[in-house]
Amino acid sequence: MGAGKRKSIPWVMLALWVAVLAFASPFAAKLADVQHDRITDYLPASADSTRVAKLQDQLPGGESTELVLVYHRAGGLTAADRATAGEQVARIAGDHALTAAPQGVPSADGATLMYLVVTNEPGTDEDKRNAFVDDVRQVAHSDDGLTVEVGGAGALSTDAGKVYESLGGPLLYTTVAVVAVLLILIYRSPVLWLVPLVVAGIADFLSMGVAYGLHQAFGTSVSGQSSGIMTILVFGAGTDYALLLVSRYREELRRVERPYDAMLAALRGCGPAVLASSGTVAAGLLCLLAADLNSSRGMGPLGAAGVLCALVAMLTLLPALLVVLGRRVFWPLVPAFGSTPRTRRSLFAAMGSSAGRRPRTVLAAGAVLLGTLALGALNLPGAVKDQDAFVDRPESVAAMETLAGAFPERSAQPIEVMTPAGRTDAVLAAIRDTDGVADARAGRTGDGWTEIAVTASAPPQSAAETATIEALRDRLTGSYVGGPSAQQIDLVDTNARDRLIVVPIVLVAVLLILIVLLRSLVAPLMLVAAVVAVWGAALGIGGLVFGPVFGFEGTDPGLGLLSFVFLVALGVDYGIFLMHRMREESVRGAEPVTAALTALRTTGGVIASAGLVLAATFAVLTNMGLVQLVELGFVIAVGVLLDTFLVRTYLVTSASVALGRRVWWPGRLSRAPEPEVADHERQFT
Question: What predicted TM-score, i.e. pTM, was given to this entire model?
Answer without folding.
Answer: 0.84
